[in-house]
Design a protein that fits this description.
The complex is a heterodimer. Chain A is an alpha/beta fold. In chain A, about 35% of the residues lie in helices and about 25% in strands. In chain A, helix 4 packs across helix 5 (about 145-155), helix 4 runs parallel beside helix 7 (about 175-190) and helix 5 (about 145-155) packs across helix 7. Chain A starts with 10 loop residues before the first helix and ends in a 5-residue tail after the last helix. In chain B, strands 1-2 form a two-stranded antiparallel sheet. Chain B has helices at about 1-15, 20-45, 60-95, 100-105, 105-125, 130-170, 175-215, 220-225, 250-280, 280-295, 300-320, 330-355, 360-365, 370-400, 405-410, 425-435, 445-475, and strands at about 230, 245. Chain B has 17 helices and two strands. By secondary structure, chain B is mainly alpha-helical. The mean pLDDT of chain B is about 85. The chains are: A alpha/beta, B mainly alpha. Chains A and B meet through helix 3, strand 6, helix 4 and helix 7 of A and helix 13 and helix 14 of B.
Chain lengths: ~280, ~475
């Protein structure tokens, strides 16, 4: 497995990071960022980020608030395009294709790279229409029964089907917070993405709903590549196979989750995961 | 220089009135109390005295304000009450004094006698003054002089006594802060009661005058009559047409013009709101929004002559060029201009509700690969719909109640038609024409204006209630 040396210009840190290669986990790279710099107006938010996202695994991005992990996540499906003053430099590839290429259709990209947000944001529509939203705008299915099936399978994958199968026409906003978040996951799954980005998906939920979502993430790993931003170190340790630690807009350390949490190579990572700062 | 002197003179006059004296007393009370309260505040508040039995409850400022308010409020209430009651008291005293004389006169003459006495006393107008009237006015003069003393003495005495009592009450334990809060709260309540009572008063006066109208014209004839021509005889006995008071043609005209106005304002206002809130760059928006809102600041009378002088001839010219007969005061011209007038209302209210749709909702849609217009059509607009509906209903209310444009640009003929090229008239136009004239105030023609006003009020009230309900009902659904 190839892991880019981080912070190539910074020799001190380069030494500290030693990407241990676990051959048994070697798998293909789904997405990769090379020398990614992001600016909000004059202010630079990300500095030369080099990070690979492994297919069919969960990669968690951790770090203190304002470290740029959400910004990086939003680069992966070009959600930063929505922000006028935001400028992205560098290369981000999905299956070897440059997603910032002029010929690439951002609509198609976002259908392949779905996103789940920090706060559950179901549309003010019925549960059914929330899930059917993506398939409808992308024309994924041709007939009503097909759409019904897709909605059902998406809700099942999101572990919500049994709770809502008798009230698909009720408002999605009437569900509990945890159910709303699973609805948003079902909504993302319904567009048949390859990658699902999750921006602190459990920060607005109670521990029980969080546990449900975490189990769900673990199940989804079989079919999807997942990138999750989280503030909870325990969550990162529980759900992810790989972890990247961001600090002040740079990736300080990146590697196997078990290795990052049991044997961090960088002092800052050590301090952060033991709760000494952040 | 002259003006300045007048102002100074006025100020001195105000100071030397009972109100001015009471005000001075209040200021005096304030400073005396401040001094007193500070003395024990200092002696008892030095150092850490928390939990001390002798702790001072309120800051000196509150004690002083409390006393000042105690000086002011009862005296002001007394002055208001005096000014309301005094004319009635003079009146009844005068009537009692000249009872023997008045009983010999007719009701009208008696009223005249008393009015003349008042006029002579107040303004020194020697209106057909008989000896008796002059005598009565002298008596009235002495009454008023006594009243004057009562007013001065009462106000000052009341202010001093209540103020002095309050001043004596000032002590470390006095809960002046709480009392001031209570007085402030009472003041706020009184202000809101005044607003509510005024509204109720206006509605009641509309209602009672309308009831008088419905005694002359049956209510079902008014509400369902198909013919409107309020030409009644000006003087009793004059031969003229018996007026017809069917409001349907007026309502139809109002609705036609409102409909045309909404055809303009609805789409244009909503689309420009969508553009401004979703597509426009912040720079363009910061320029375009105020410009659009300037439209709302143009006086309606200006829109009125814009309609008469520009739009109406234009429409007439176009119509005639394609062989249509267009009335010079067509519903179309009035409606179009009214539509332009309410564009800013629709756009600015819609803009607010569209902006209130959480960004997270848009992000959710973009994150699924929706385009901007898909997001707007399928997520933003449905979420903002209740607000947009209520904006439209408020615009309709505004259009229905709008007067000046239609007075100038719409016709007076009460045609029952849905052809926008013909002249129609509206409820508001008829109210204006009914009241501009020299009719007796209790003729059916004049009273009809109140009935129309009531009708208008009920319609807009219902629309506003629906608008509020729509907003309330759907507000819970997102967030």
């Amino acid at each position: 497995m190839e892991i880019q040396p981080i912070m190539s210009e910074d020799t001190e840190k380069q030494q500290a990071v030693s990407p241990l290669q676990h051959e048994e986990n070697q798998s293909s790279v789904k997405m990769s960022g090379k020398n990614v710099n992001v600016f909000y107006g004059e202010k630079q938010a990300l500095f030369d980020i080099n990070l690979d996202i492994t297919a069919n695994s969960v990669t968690s991005l951790i770090g203190p608030s304002g470290c740029g992990k959400s910004t990086f996540l939003r680069c992966l499906n070009r959600m930063n395009d929505v922000i006028d003053i935001c400028k992205v430099e560098g290369d981000i590839h999905l299956d070897g294709e440059d997603i910032y290429d002029d010929h690439l259709d951002v609509v198609e990209l976002r259908a392949r790279v779905g996103m789940v947000f920090q706060k559950p944001n179901p549309f003010p529509k019925s549960i059914y229409d929330n899930v059917a939203y993506g398939p409808r705008i992308h024309g994924l299915v041709q007939t009503e029964p097909d759409l019904d099936n897709l909605v059902e399978s998406s809700l099942q994958k999101a572990g919500l089907w049994d709770e809502v199968k008798n009230r698909l026409q009720d408002a999605g906003t009437g569900l509990s917070g945890g159910q709303q978040q699973r609805l948003c996951i079902a909504r993302a799954i319904a567009t048949k993405p390859d990658v699902i980005l999750m921006d602190e998906p459990c920060s607005a939920l109670d521990p029980i709903a969080t546990a449900t979502i975490e189990e769900l993430i673990d199940e989804l790993r079989a079919n999807y590549t997942i990138v999750i931003v989280t503030h909870s170190m325990q969550q990162a340790a529980r759900v992810s196979q790989r972890t990247a630690f961001f600090h002040l807009g740079k990736v300080i350390e990146e590697g196997q989750t078990t290795q990052i949490f049991t044997n961090p190579q960088n002092e800052k990572t050590q301090d952060y995961i033991t709760g000494r700062f952040g | 220089m002259h003006v300045l002197l007048d102002i100074i003179q006025g100020l001195i006059g105000l100071l030397l009135s009972p109100l001015g004296i009471v005000g001075l007393l209040a200021i005096l009370g304030y400073y005396l109390t401040l001094k007193k309260a500070r003395s024990f505040y200092k002696s008892n508040h030095s150092g850490d005295t928390k939990g001390n039995e002798n702790n001072v409850h309120s800051l000196p400022f509150y004690s002083a304000t409390y006393v000042a308010l105690q000086v002011l409020v009862p005296a002001i209430v007394f002055l208001i009450a005096y000014n309301i009651a005094a004319p009635f008291i003079y009146h009844s005293l005068l009537s009692t004094a000249y009872e023997s004389h008045l009983s010999s006169l007719s009701q009208f003459q008696a009223k005249n006698f008393i009015d003349s006495a008042f006029a002579l006393t107040k303004d020194n107008i020697p209106a057909q003054s008989s000896k008796l009237i002059t005598e009565a006015s002298v008596y009235l003069g002495s009454l008023m002089e006594t009243g004057h003393y009562i007013k001065w003495g009462g106000a000052i005495l009341l202010a001093s006594i209540v103020g002095a009592l309050a001043y004596n009450r000032v002590s470390p334990a006095l809960r002046a802060r709480n009392r001031v809060e209570r007085i402030v709260k009472a003041g706020l309540i009184i202000c809101s009661i005044i607003a509510v009572l005024t509204t109720i008063g206006i509605v009641l006066s509309l209602l009672f005058e309308s009831l008088r109208f419905f005694q002359k014209v049956p209510i079902n004839e008014f509400l369902f009559g198909m013919h409107w021509s309020p030409q009644t005889s000006i003087r009793p006995g004059q031969v003229s047409a018996q007026g017809a008071f069917g409001a349907i043609p007026l309502l139809a005209g109002t609705l036609l013009i409102t409909f045309i106005a909404m055809l303009v304002a609805g789409p244009v206002g909503l689309m420009s709101a969508i553009f401004l809130s979703e597509y426009a760059s912040p720079k363009f928006r910061s320029f375009a929004k105020p410009v659009l809102e300037v439209l709302a600041g143009i006086p309606t009378v200006v829109y009125g002559f814009f309609a008469v002088l520009t739009i109406a001839p234009l429409i007439r010219g176009w119509g005639e060029s394609i062989g249509l007969t267009v009335a010079s005061e067509s519903a179309l011209a009035a409606g179009l201009v009214m539509g332009i007038m309410i564009i800013p209302l629709v756009s600015s209210l819609s803009d607010d509700v569209i902006n209130a749709v959480p960004q997270s909702m848009r992000d959710g849609s973009y994150g699924l690969g929706a385009t901007k217009s898909e997001t707007i059509r399928q997520v933003v607009l449905p979420a903002a719909l209740p607000g947009i509906v209520s904006a439209m209903l408020l615009a309709v209310s505004r259009a229905i109640g709008e007067t000046m444009i239609v007075v100038m640009a719409a016709g007076l003929a009460a045609n029952l038609t849905i052809n926008p090229l013909e002249a129609v008239t509206t409820v508001t136009v008829q109210i204006v024409t009914l009241l501009v004239g020299d009719q007796e105030f209790d003729s059916a023609k004049t009273l009809a204006a109140f009935a129309l006003g009531l009708l208008l009020f009920v319609i807009t009230l219902i629309l506003n209630i629906i608008a509020l309900r729509v907003v309330q009902k759907y507000r819970e659904e997102y967030e």
